[in-house]
Amino acid sequence: ASHADSSVKLQLQWVTQAQFAGYYVALEKGYYEEEGLEVEILPGGPDIAPPQVLAGGGADAMLNWMPSALAAREKGLPVVNIAQPFKSSGLMLTCWKDTGIEGPQDFKGKTIGVWFFGNEYPFLSWMSQEGISTDGGEDGVTVLKQGFNVDPLIQRQADCISTMTYNEYGQVLDAGVSEDELVTFKYEDMGVATLEDGIYVLEENLEDPAFKEKMVKFVRASMKGWKYAEENPDEAAGIVLDYDETGAQTEAHQVRMMGEIAKLTAGSNGALDPADYQRTVDTLLAGGSDPVITAAPEGAYTLEITDEALD
Amino acid sequence: MISAKSLDLTFETNDGPVHALKGVDLDIGKGEFVSFIGPSGCGKTTFLRCIAALETPTGGELTVNGMTPENARQARAYGYVFQAAGLYPWRTIAGNIKLPLEIMGFSKAEQKKRVEQVLELVDLAGFGGKFPWQLSGGMQQRASIARALSFDADILLMDEPFGALDEIVRDHLNEELLKLWARTGKTIGFVTHSIPEAVYLSTKIVVMSPRPGRITDVIDSPLPKERPLDIRDTPEFLEIAHRVREGLRAGHAYD
Amino acid sequence: MISAKSLDLTFETNDGPVHALKGVDLDIGKGEFVSFIGPSGCGKTTFLRCIAALETPTGGELTVNGMTPENARQARAYGYVFQAAGLYPWRTIAGNIKLPLEIMGFSKAEQKKRVEQVLELVDLAGFGGKFPWQLSGGMQQRASIARALSFDADILLMDEPFGALDEIVRDHLNEELLKLWARTGKTIGFVTHSIPEAVYLSTKIVVMSPRPGRITDVIDSPLPKERPLDIRDTPEFLEIAHRVREGLRAGHAYD
Amino acid sequence: MMRTIFPVAVVVAVIVGLWYAACIPMNIHTAATQAERAGMVIDPEGAAERRDMGAIALALRNTGIWGDTWAQDKPRLPAPHQVVTELWETTVEKKVTSKRSLIFHGWVTLSATLLGFGIGTVAGILLAVGIVHSRAMDMSVMPWAIASQTIPILAIAPMIIVVLNSVGLQGLIPKAIISAYLSFFPVVVGMVKGFRSPSQMQIDQMRTWSASRSQTFWKLRLPASMPYLFASLKIGIAASLVGAIVGELPTGAVRGLGARLLTGSYYGQTIQIWSALFATAILAAVLVAAVAAMERATLKRMGVGR
Amino acid sequence: MGLVIAALVIWGLAWWMNIRIANGAQADTKGAKLAVPAIFGLTLLVMWELIVRGLDVPMVILPAPSLIVVRFADSLPILWADFVQTVVKGALSGYVIGCAAAFVTAILVDRSDFLRRGLMPVGSFVAALPIVGTAPILVMWYGFDWQSKAAVVVVMVFFPMLVNITAGLQETTQMQRDQMKTWAAGYWQSFWTLRLPAAMPFVFNGLKISSTLALIGAIVAEFFGSPIVGMGFRISTSVGQLALDMVWAEILVAALAGSAFYGVVALIERKVTFWHPSQRG
Ligand SMILES: Nc1ncnc2c1ncn2[C@@H]1O[C@H](COP(=O)(O)OP(=O)(O)OP(=O)(O)O)[C@@H](O)[C@H]1O
Ligand SMILES: Nc1ncnc2c1ncn2[C@@H]1O[C@H](COP(=O)(O)OP(=O)(O)OP(=O)(O)O)[C@@H](O)[C@H]1O
Ligand SMILES: [Mg+2]
Ligand SMILES: [Mg+2]
């Protein structure tokens, strides 16, 4: 494909929500236009594997969690991280307090909901670090493939479920559960956090200077959007709401989400911190019997784009 | 045995009422062989169905064996043979004949005995294990007659039982039917379209005409009980046939 | 007109070969009315289908109008009337009669003219706009004959055309058919199961017998061309009928 | 007409009654928690206490909050009037251009359905023509057409989308193709039956007139297949609708009834899910009724309808 | 490009071969009836392989059949476990329950004309509810394990079965019912000896349709929550892991299981409705 034109298609990894506020703000506020770009944002969903879309040429850039992106790299799809707007991880396990769970070792014999679709990697490596099997039984945890809402916890089909600080956790509270009934384990605190929501492109495309140029502009404008969103969460939530074509989102929900998201993007100027990268890779390599990646990847990120963009 | 007095039957249809039977008077005595003949739609089938309590007359009186037709049906007073053999393809011939016996609660041994008996009677011994579709049309029709005979009711009602068969097979079955009638002494009501068939078989021929369905002629046959097939070439036979044909033509509006 | 010499036709089936026709010799002259009669399965239909080039004989010779049957079919030498009327329910009577004309590429005007002509011929003038299901069985069969006549072939082949009709309607159509034959002088091949029908209509009666299908008797009828319905009660008629029946019975293995 | 309306009304009334009754145990736990927060006395006290309690027992001990179970914000089972209200608000009260209007989403789904239905029907008919006229096709295609229908469409839909995406097809077309995939099969099966429905006699009749293959097709096989065509179109259009909805999920779930269902389920918006569900069923009923009306009109014009 | 052209050539050759066989003297033998579709299917596979290789389609978009077969052979234990979870536990149990429920309902509907007129239109409306909407609800109600999958299958097969059984029970002719009347048979007598056997062709039609529906329903329901075993689970997570060869291996299992399921039902149909003209051939 020719990259000489000015169009950029961005594949999100989930439906339109405040998690992606920065990009929608940049679009709405004309930051992309200022850079001379025509950006199209493609919402995702549970059935969409962004790397697949990228491989098929349906998008120029994608958002992805790093474990998933590294796994794709090992599968022979060379994707490269060019920017990392999210500094910290919003992933956590939320458990009922009355199950008696106080620490990770108490997970044994319990049922835990996990998302999969790439989100399972940090969980699996955490469990293997704790030495807990994931095949069920007395000494292991029983893993459920959780749907994309919080019903399993509310219905007590699971003792713990995966939640994002900015989304599902709020839904649990919305369902009438009070915070003191719950115990939460943030991956960030457990030392098994992996990088979320980075911007990735295909390695071969980066060989084209025109494409690189375009990405520089794209990252610059996107980060501008993110910073604006951090400072004006209510307005950002409103913009997201306007772009949600399903009309399914509610304002209260998006405002709260934006507030939580701002905490995650806060520490980042868009450039990937190699230390964070290393921690992610280490976590994944510790993955035990079902490793996400078998060897430390080479060239899975580049700082060139952000260096140029942030000058 | 069977007695109808000014019987009426009107079907209510979308296009208005259809007078299928109007003022039908008829008495059928025990052991008679009565044929009904008439153009299509004249109410032959309807009349037979009234006797069998498959239709309810809208007027007049009808008794079968001195009871109402409904009671006669419950008392299993008659066997009914439909135009098509109507055997169940998923049962063997023997299974088909056994069916009414099962329903009526005969013992297993009795069922077996009777099936053999009637198979013999209709010349189908040895075919009990076959399925209906493995038999020719004539054989199927005989099996269907055997089924109606199996529970040995006094009355046998037959609605164009040989309509679908070729002439030779038909001749043959007519002969057989006469023999059977002579042997069992049953009362038979028989619907047909064929003049020679009606004349050949019956002690009484009822000629009907349509719109509304009514009886135009009742002919008592002077033919002897013993009837070889050749009887159809005799002048007496031809005379009755002629009378029937005239009666038919009188009541017939083409198409 | 039609000439068969030691014609053979064997169907290969799963249960082995079926000899539908074996050594059939027959000559049909121009303007003859030939009936084929015989028990079920004796090959009447098969023989008619051979003439119509719907089956291919496996032996012997067959010419139609001096050509091979296939060529005769291409030359549209005959009209064929099947047992059931087989009219298309989605076409009016006129549309049905027009169908072969459309296929044969007649002009619109010519189509219209011929449809009117043949409707007249079979006494259905005025019914062209009706749909088949709005007509009685007898009228449908007449329409089907009209369709076979519409393109005015020299030969008319009819396979039990009146099999499904009641006797009175049948008598009536027989009379009509004779008139039509007299008027048009066509050569007619006619399959039937009914002895009176065969005798009443034909100048030549071909009696066949089955397994293998062959001709057992060919009877030239001495009856005059002019035939009122009453002719069926005359001794000559009965004599021929008797001969046909004997011929049939000889070749008939029950069922 | 009355003969159907009354029984249907009775059955619907019974179902609605059962539905309301079912809402009580289904939603009682959350209703109790909310009522307690609002200051009511609930027996037993405390959400943790009630957690392991049977829903029916809880409902019987707190008859006072039954009303609340029918007015939840995100109920496990929404009450009928909630669904109806939502349907009303999102169809009648919203502008059709609004993205909160079900009519807007219904139209998006409908357009993919109709296009897919068109493609599927044409493909199905062509395939059936081939099968009827070529023995080789008859023998080779049919078993595989059956096998193709045992593949779960939801599994391959994303792949179809990606593959088409990589050759530059986006938006309506991929959805329509998935929808066509589901609708072609009933059409093939029905039309093969239909094209073969003329009796041997009718075909022989055509031969006696030396009709060509195409004449036989146009004048006999095609008109004879009409009743079969419409029977399979009715199945096909319902299948198309399902296909269009399935196709919406992996296209980013942006618009359409399928997207509505999916996003509703992410956020536990049960009322929204149920109203989208009913909207789909209503749409299906309307589409089938439309085909049935077409059928009646066509058959009447052909003189077959009485 | 060469490989693509080779694919087209092979297509042409295979087609020519099939036409030869299908119109040849042996066309009606068992061998030909197997060979023709087999050649057709093989050709499709070979073309797929050649085109994928010829056009260099990335594995993460469409893997070549050879890769799928290798993955299939390597993953037999996993595939077997998934098969048991989804097909045996989910699909089969739901199928049995759904068909049984439809049968009982059909008898109720048959006995009461009021119920028929009331229930059938409502039922057809309910049947139009799309599975992608009902599955999440049922998973929410019945939990993550196979029970909820079975529930989805029950919902999917119930109505097609009901329609077919009811239609089948109407299948007797007026004459056959009259005949029963002349013998003064009761409801159940004529049900067991006449109406049920006569309904069998319809019942099997429903069973065949439902067999594919059951499988699809069980797989799709797993997309909305499941334990970490099952064909739907494996498909959806493998897509996330870009293990497309695994996805296709599962699809292969689904197609094999579906065809086998269908085949078994068709075989039983042959045995039970041996008397029906369509089975006598
Ligand atoms: N169930 C019905 N509803 C309305 N009309 C009916 C019904 N059954 C019969 N008829 C009408 O009643 C009349 C007599 O019918 P019936 O079947 O008794 O005639 P038939 O003499 O047996 O004729 P066929 O020789 O054709 O059998 C006909 O006009 C027929 O249309
Ligand atoms: N296509 C076929 N394949 C195999 N056998 C056939 C075929 N057509 C006819 N036959 C057999 O050929 C024999 C003659 O059949 P044909 O139809 O000519 O009899 P028919 O005299 O017309 O009988 P009917 O009076 O019953 O119409 C029969 O035994 C029949 O079973
Ligand atoms: Mg009658
Ligand atoms: Mg014949």
UniProtKB/TrEMBL annotation, chains B, C:
CDD domains, per the entry: ABC_NrtD_SsuB_transporters
Instruction: Identify a single GO molecular function assigned to this protein.
Output: ATP binding
What are the record keywords, sorted?
Answer: ATP-binding, Nucleotide-binding, Transport
Q: Which Gene3D superfamilies match?
A: P-loop containing nucleotide triphosphate hydrolases
Domain of life, per UniProt, equals Bacteria
Where does the ABC transporter domain start and stop, copy by copy?
4-231
Instruction: Check the record and name the InterPro entries matching this protein.
Output: AAA+_ATPase, ABC_transporter-like_ATP-bd, ABC_transporter-like_CS, ABC_transporter_ATP-bind, P-loop_NTPase
Presence of keyword Metal-binding: no
The UniProt entry's sequence similarity note says: Belongs to the ABC transporter superfamily.
Instruction: Extract the PANTHER family matched here.
Output: ALIPHATIC SULFONATES IMPORT ATP-BINDING PROTEIN SSUB (PTHR42788:SF13), TAURINE IMPORT ATP-BINDING PROTEIN-RELATED (PTHR42788)
Q: What is this protein called?
A: Sulfonate ABC transporter ATP-binding protein
Organism encoding this protein: Pseudooceanicola atlanticus
Q: What is the lineage of its organism?
A: Bacteria, Pseudomonadati, Pseudomonadota, Alphaproteobacteria, Rhodobacterales
UniProtKB/TrEMBL annotation, chain E:
Query: An example of a Gene Ontology BP annotation on this entry?
Result: transmembrane transport
**InterPro entries, alphabetized:** MetI-like, MetI-like_sf
Q: How does it sit in the membrane?
A: Multi-pass membrane protein
What protein am I looking at?
A: ABC transporter permease
Coiled-coil annotation reads: none
Q: Which residues form the signal peptide?
A: none
One matching Pfam family is: BPD_transp_1
Q: ABC transmembrane type-1 domain location, by residue?
A: 96-273
Where is the protein situated, by its record's location annotation?
A: Cell membrane
Indicate the transmembrane segments per the record.
34-52, 59-80, 92-110, 122-144, 150-169, 213-235, 247-268
Which Gene3D superfamilies does its entry note?
Answer: MetI-like (1.10.3720.10)
Q: Name one GO cellular component term.
A: plasma membrane
Q: What is its main location?
A: membrane
Its keywords, alphabetically, are: Cell membrane, Membrane, Transmembrane, Transmembrane helix, Transport
